[in-house]
Write a structure and sequence with these properties.
2 copies of one chain form a homodimer. Chain A is α/β, with parallel strands linked by helices. Chain A has 2 domains: 109 residues, Ribosomal protein L30/S12 (60s Ribosomal Protein L30, Chain: A, 2-Layer Sandwich), CATH 3.30.1330.30; 158 residues, 3-Layer(aba) Sandwich (Alpha/beta knot), CATH 3.40.1280. Chain A contains 12 helices and 11 strands. In chain A, α8 links the parallel β5 and β6. The radius of gyration of chain A is 21 Å and the shape is elongated.
C-alpha cells in the first residue's frame, strides 16, 4: 500500500498526467475510471493503481475478469493477472489521499491504469479495403478530438491521420471523451500532412476537403469509393498547403446566420454520410 | 469608472454569472467578448461594461456601429446608443481588476453585455411552416447544449424545445458555445414534455425518438413532412414517458464497438439528414 504522495511512482504518475512529451517518450498513457479501464485490451496494461475500497468493491472482480480473458487469449503464456497482482507486479494499492493526488478527475473512482500506447503504420491504414479515412489538421480542443475519435469508430472510419500539431490523443481529458474508441480506432500522427495526402492520392483514394467555401455540397458526392476527408482547425480551418492537396472542396450547406459548425459536428455529418451511402 | 469590486453593480454581475435562478428572475443574461457582443440584437442590450483599453481600441467603434443600426431600426425612436452611453445609461467603464473579477473567462477581452432573454411561444413554434423541431430531454452538459443550438441553427431547425431540467441555455459557457445562435435560434423551455409532444402530434408533426434500440434506421424515414426529433440525456437517453410519445424510434447504425454517440453528434447527424432530404 502506497501511503505517501512523495512516493516516486506517484510522482511519476502526476507528471504523466500533465506532460504529453513524457507520455510519448515512455510510450504509455493513463486511463481512469471503471468503465474506461474495462475497455483496455489486457495485454496493454502495465500497471493498475486502486484504492483499497475500490479493490474490494469492484477491483477484485475486474482483475479476475481480466485474468480469465488473458488466460483464454494465451493459455500457455503469461500467468493470469491476478497472480501477478498478488506479487505486486501489476496492482498497487494506494490510500484515498494518494489516489486523489494522482488523479486527473474531480471525483476519482479509485482506479487508474498505466497503458501502452498503440501503433499503426501509415501505409497499412491507406491500404485498407474500402478505405474511409479522416485527416485532422491542427485540431486543438482535447474534448473535440476525443469526440471525433468516438464518432469515427461509430461511423466505420478505417483510419485517422493527425498532423503532429493536433492536440495529444493521450491527454487525460481526450482519453475520457473517446469513451473507449482510443483502444480500437486505428490512427497515426504524421509529420508531413501534405506529403501523406499525396501518397493517399497515389493509392487511388479520393480526397475531400471540408471547406466553408467548398464548390460542391457534401451530399452530392460519391463516397462508396475509397475516401478521405480533410478537417481543419476549429478557428482557422485547413492550412492552405493542406487544403490545396484535396481533389474536391465540399461544404455543408448551412441555414440561418451560422458561420461554421463545430469541427466534431462537421466531421460527424461527413463521416455518417459516407456510412449512409455505403449501406445503400 | 467603477474602480471597486465591492461596487453593488459588479457584485450583481458576479451573482448573475453563477446563478441560473437569478438570471431567470431578472429575465437577463450575460455575454462576453467582442465576437459575441457584435451578434447581440441591439434592442436587447441593457448595459455594457468595458475596460478603458477595450473602449478606446474597439468599444467606441462597436458602440457607433450599434448606434447607427439602432437609428436605422427606429429613426424616430430612442436616442442612439452612443448618446445614452455618454450619459452612462448603457456604458460603464471599469478598471481591468474589476473586469477580471466580474468576468467568467480566464483571459477576459474587456467587454461584457447584460442582455434581455428572448421569448418564444410554444404554439407558434409548433405551427411553423415546414416545422423541423428538436426536443431535448434532460441534456446536462452546458457545452453540448450550446453546440446543439449552434448546429440546430445551421441545419435550419425551426424550434428547439427543452425540458425544464435541461442545462440552462443562459449559462455563460453555454452562451459562448452557441457562437451567437442563442440570439437567433427560436427555443422554449417547457414544464410538461410528454404533454408538449402530444400537442405536436395533434398538429400533424411526425415525432421520431433517437434511440439506441430504434427499430428503424434514421436514414430510411421521410423528413420532408413536419418533423420533430426527441434527443435524450447524455448518459441515460430518453425518459420512458418521453420516448413512449414518439411515433417511431430511429437508430443511427454504428460500426465497431461504440456503444453510443455524443448527444450533440447524434442530434447533428439527424438534423442534417432532414436538411439533406429537404434540399433534394
Amino acid at each position: 500500500m502506497i501511503t505517501s504522495t512523495s512516493n516516486v511512482k506517484i510522482k511519476e504518475i502526476v507528471q504523466l498526467q500533465k506532460k504529453s512529451r513524457l507520455r510519448n517518450e515512455r510510450g504509455i498513457f493513463l486511463v481512469e475510471g471503471l468503465r474506461m479501464v474495462q475497455e483496455i485490451p489486457m495485454e496493454r496494461i502495465e500497471k493498475m493503481y486502486m484504492t483499497e475500497e475500490f479493490y474490494k468493491k469492484k477491483g477484485k472482480a475486474l482483475l479476475q475478469e481480466q485474468a480469465m480473458s488473458r488466460k483464454r487469449a494465451s493459455p500457455q503464456g503469461k500467468e493470469p493477472l491476478r497472480e501477478e497482482a498478488a506479487q505486486g507486479k501489476v496492482l498497487e494499492l494506494v490510500t484515498p489521499t494518494v489516489f486523489s493526488y494522482m488523479s486527473d478527475t474531480k471525483t476519482p473512482q479509485g482506479v487508474l491504469a498505466v497503458v501502452r500506447q498503440g501503433g499503426f503504420a501509415k501505409e497499412a491504414l491507406m491500404d485498407a479495403k474500402d478505405a474511409h479515412l479522416l485527416v485532422l489538421d491542427n485540431i486543438q480542443d482535447p474534448g473535440n478530438l476525443g469526440t471525433i475519435f468516438r464518432t469515427a469508430e461509430a461511423a466505420g472510419v478505417t483510419g485517422v491521420f493527425l498532423s503532429r500539431d493536433c492536440a495529444d490523443i493521450y491527454n487525460p481529458k481526450t482519453v475520457r471523451s473517446t469513451m473507449g474508441a482510443i483502444f480500437r480506432q486505428p490512427f497515426v500522427y504524421v509529420e508531413d500532412l501534405p506529403g501523406t495526402i499525396a501518397r493517399m492520392k497515389e493509392k487511388g483514394i479520393c480526397v475531400f476537403a471540408a471547406h466553408l467555401q467548398g464548390e460542391r455540397s457534401y451530399d452530392r458526392e460519391d463516397y462508396r469509393k475509397k475516401t478521405a476527408f480533410l478537417v481543419g482547425n476549429e478557428g482557422n480551418g485547413l492550412r492552405r498547403e493542406v487544403e490545396e492537396m484535396a481533389d474536391v472542396r465540399v461544404r455543408i450547406p448551412m441555414a440561418g446566420r451560422a458561420e461554421s459548425l463545430n469541427a466534431a459536428i462537421a466531421a460527424g455529418v461527413l463521416m455518417f454520410e459516407v456510412a449512409r451511402q455505403r449501406r445503400e
